[in-house]
Input
Amino acid sequence: MDAAWRDGPKLRGLPPDQMNDMGEPRRDTSGVTTRVVVLYVKQHGGDQAVAALLESAGETRSLDELLDEHGWSSYEQRIRLFRAAVEVLGDPGAVRRIGQSMLRSRIALPLVVLLRALGSPEQVLRNVAKANSRFSTNSTVQALEIGNGHAVVTYRLHEGYVPDPLDCQYTEGLLSLVPEVFGLPPATIRHNECQVHGAPACLYRLRWRPRHRWFQRVRAEHTHLRDQLDAITQRFQELQSVAADLVSTEDVSTVLAGIATRASHAVRAPRVPTRRPGDRGLPAAGVPPRLHGRRGIHSGRATDPRRTTGAHRFLAGR
Output
């Protein structure tokens, strides 16, 4: 990583209304959001665009801090980054595409694996409130209506925060990609009621093509297995990094501090649900889809709301 790109400009601090009682930025937005913004701008504009992004947003944090998925930002910091991304890239629709890029990239890979384990776009949207609470503390998302290939979802920014059109774009981008998690085309979205224009909440009407063709199911299952492998590979690489620390020539206290930091990140990381042959609600591992349902091979639906999967438990905070 380029040194000039890594070290962001040290500019002005935050005003008091964006700080908590400890004098720290409010924890409104997960570091996953800041990371995806920075990486999207780097991908489409290069290192110079990233430097311009941080300067335009008035960021006082280093680039490493913005790339830390375990960090937090205030709502105002998030909006400033959104505005800066639009300005630097010269793309009015950049923030919507940033929202889409999160689910299409490796950044949120463990989350995508968990969402896919829920079994369908409908089931994901039934759990959208729980998923949102993992990444945002200043908004509430609720599914008002869910049907085969359509849904109505509300997004309400909490009192004391000023709604912004770019925040709406980001939410649209995220919601539109839910069907794509299952190998389907993105959803189309109508957003006619908006908090920016005085509505009590933003109302998103989603429509997508229902999953009914066998090849779409096969593609989704193959993608799910591939993402599980990628997630396991990431964890293995983290273990390799820890092993390298153990044989480091640095002093013991520095090595132990580094290992403790990695361990705390691993503990907070969501588990990847595993499939075992014969698990109820999941097809047997390694069995072709055409054989599901035959004697000795269970093929129950994972979308039955009475069943509790690892994904449900994670989203519920258990």
User: Anything to note?
Assistant: Confidence is low (pLDDT under 50) at residues 1-14, 267-287, 294-303. Residues 109-207 form a domain with the H-NOX domain fold (CATH 3.90.1520.10).
